[in-house]
Amino acid sequence: MLAVATPALAQEQVTPGQIKALREEIADIDDWLADAEEDRSSLEQQLSGIEREIGQLTRERRELREEAREQQQRLTELSEEEAELTRTLESQRESLKKQIRAAWMEGDAPAVKVLLNEIDPDKIARTMTYYEYLSRDTIERLEAFAANLRQLKETRKQVSAGRLRLAELEQDVANRQQKLSTSKTQRAQTLAALETDISDRRNEREELEGDRRRLEKLLKDVEEAIANIPTPNESDPFGSLREKLPWPAQGKVASSFGDSYANGKLSYRGLLINTAEGSEIRAVHYGRVVFANWLRGFGLMTILDHGDGYMTLYGHSSSLFTSPGDWVEAGEAIAQAGQTGGTGNPAVYFEIRHNGKPDNPLRWLGKR
């Protein structure tokens, strides 16, 4: 995503270039907001899809649980059938045992004994038929019960396997549902953070827009206030005084023209001179005061117009000695140094502009 730095107005310049920079930053924020809106829409769609999928999985789990309950009921019924068949089979086995035992007690060949003992042919035939029927019927019934029992056990085995499969399926669905819930939470957190970023960027944009309007108004006011300045005969034109201008204040240069600040996003367009609290700030050349007021970031500021498109700015004052429209001489005290506008130490911000463009003051100031 796009990262937009909030401009530090402590060093912003009331120039068309500065206003252009603000407009570019506002455009960057607009681009970021457009990207963020797309991201938000994508996240919302993802959340919607996840919620639908979670709902579908919840339904699947419910159906699997219902099917598992039916399988458990079937297992219970099969267990009861198995028990009943087992009891019947055991009863048949006991009956067969008794028949075998009785036949054994009569001898190894009960049918032969019957043949030997019976004289009536009809009775012999009936007896032999009885034995054959009894033996065949018993065996058939035992085989049928055994077959039913085997089938029941196989069915029970299949139902148990099916129930195990259902349990595994439900666990798989539960795992997927848990992953989706975790994903939903993460995306919801991302969306919430994005909403916060969007709100912050919108507030930032409003601030920048306000700064832009304020600077445009100030620049317009300054331009309207500037008129052709009648340069005294004894005063040399500003443009002829390169490396000859007096310093606006005593002190050490803390930041020079072109030094970066705001994490490298911006650069100084003037000098920041550390000086003593309450020391005088002096005009570097004859000119007219076009601005003398508080400006956010600069504190109390004075702007002088020297004609031919040259202007000088003096910021961070604790007190202003002039008013718009006043004329000042070179070296005249125009303000008192301080630390208004957010400086940590007493300092003077000094800048030179020609036709709205900042120029390095060290090219204009004389040696000390």
Automatic annotation (TrEMBL):
Q: Name one GO molecular function term.
A: metalloendopeptidase activity
Q: Determine the domain of life of the protein's source.
A: Bacteria
Q: Which UniProt keywords apply?
A: Coiled coil
Signal peptide as annotated in the record = none
Q: Does the keyword Acetylation apply?
A: no
- The chain positions of domain M23ase beta-sheet core read 269-361
What InterPro entries does the database record attribute to this sequence?
Answer: Cell_wall_metabolism_enzyme, Dup_hybrid_motif, M23ase_b-sheet_dom
- Regions annotated as coiled coil: 19-95, 152-228
Give the PANTHER family listed for this entry: MUREIN HYDROLASE ACTIVATOR ENVC, PEPTIDASE-RELATED
Which protein, by its recorded name, is this?
Answer: Peptidase M23
- What species is this protein from? Marinobacter vulgaris
